[in-house]
Amino acid sequence: MFLTTRRTFLAAAATAALTTGLPMQAWGQDMPEIEFLYSPFADYAPFFVAKDLGFFDEFGADVTLSPKGNTAETIQMLASGNIEAGAATWGASLFNALDRGATVSIIATLARMPDTVPSPSPFMVSQQAWDAGIQSVEDLKGKRVGIPGPGGFGMYSVAKALEKGGLSVADVEAVFLPPPATAAAFANGALEAGWSIEPFAHQLEAQGLGRRLVDDHTFGTELGFIAFNQDFVRDHEDAVVRFMAGYLKGARLLDNGGWEDDSIVEIVAKYTGTDPETLRGIPYTIRSEDGAIDMTSVRAQEEFFRQAGDLAYEGQADIDGVYRVDLLEQANTLLADNP
User: Fold this and answer.
1) CA-CA distance, 313 to 256, in Å (whole number)?
2) Is 227 a domain residue?
3) Bridge-partner residues for 228, per DSSP?
4) Around Cβ 333, how many Cβ atoms within 10 Å?
5) Rounded to two decimals, what is the model's pTM?
6) At 251, is the secondary structure helix, strand, or coil?
7) Burial of 6 (0-12, 13-18, 19+ CB in 10 A)
8) Bond preceding residue 67 cis, omega within 30 of 0
9) Crossing angle of helices 153-163/295-307, nearest 10°?
10) Domain check: are 166 and 252 in the same one?
11) Nearest residue to 50 via CA among 37, 29, 65, 39
12) C-alpha–C-alpha distance, residues 127 and 132, integer Å
């Protein structure tokens, strides 16, 4: 019921081409394939929904979703032209790459932390540590804290959580490991606390391995962005616009009650490898309705990494020079004309 008939689709396409400035003849042609790199987290749910419910197809975008390793991999593969599109979190490596002139185009937000609790990305303490008396941030001085890696959102998030207790990352023993490994580390006593993200945070609570210690440390923070290879964007702007229209349709569905639909949850469960029951009722990241990026939040993260000594340049990275707001605006117009 989510897919239009071909006749209706082509008529809507022609109308959209007139209103958005996309070339009408392109709607009848095959679009170049867009391979999009994703992580198996709920933050990427709009892409899973857009793919499986046919939203990309509705707008004529030929999209393949491929799992990835890490943010650095995404930026490197985009810049080298080995991949057309992907999403990544804001971090020191990204800011440095932009300053060096990395050949990527940023199109829209991936996800943003909500201004509510519980958080989709809490700072957690192991149940063992809690039982041993570590029940506040202040108690973590000198203790082992899990962080996904240096220079990324996980580091920024942990630093903001530690600030709640007057500590900094320098006051704890940083242990770098990915979120899925936190469960084992909590269970065997290798960590006292650590960064997490849904659905892993919920799993830690459900298994009795961890509990939330700080939930209100990253309200409104931009988590990540959607980017394309710059050459691909130059040659295929219309394909990028159509991809983004499909993404925005999936995002709006989720952000307006879609998570209450069991069929939607089943789709996300398939891509994340998570049991549907685990996904039901957990807190989720959100997005601005039009996909715009809150640059104030991004600049705050850039300044954090500058103060940490992780940036190899002075001043601000030229994000505006690669942020294609014009294509995002076209995608919004296309979606408005073909809801």
Assistant:
1) 41
2) yes
3) 85, 105
4) 17
5) 0.86
6) helix
7) exposed
8) no
9) 80
10) no
11) 65
12) 8
Judged by DSSP in three states, 287 sits in coil
CB 289 within 8 A of CB 252: yes
Q: How far is 180 from 197, CA to CA, in rounded Å? A: 9
In a domain, 1, yes or no: no
Tally of domains in the chain? 2
pLDDT score of 30? 76
Q: Where residue 88 sits, what CATH number does that domain have?
A: 3.40.190.10
Q: Locate tokens 């909500």: which residue?
A: 114
Last residue of a domain, one of 173, 190, 214: 214
Report pLDDT for 12: 41
pLDDT tens-place values along the chain, 339 residues long: 333 332 333 334 434 443 444 543 344 457 899 999 998 888 999 999 999 999 999 999 999 999 986 656 788 899 899 999 999 889 998 899 888 888 999 999 999 999 999 999 999 999 999 999 999 999 999 999 999 988 999 999 999 999 999 999 999 999 999 888 999 999 999 999 999 988 889 889 999 999 999 999 999 999 999 999 999 999 999 999 999 999 999 999 999 999 999 999 999 999 999 899 989 889 999 999 999 999 999 999 999 999 999 999 999 999 999 999 999 999 999 999 998
Instruction: Find the domain containing 177 and state its range.
Output: 123-214
Is 93 part of any domain? yes
Domain boundary among 195, 214, 233: 214
- Alpha helix stretches (DSSP H) within the chain: 6-20, 45-52, 55-58, 71-80, 92-100, 127-131, 153-163, 182-187, 200-206, 230-235, 237-255, 262-272, 276-279, 295-307, 325-337
In a domain, 139, yes or no: yes
Which amino acid type is present at position 240? V
How far is it, in rounded angstroms, from Cα 302 to Cα 297?
9
- Secondary structure (DSSP) of 122-137: -EEEEHHHHHTT--SG
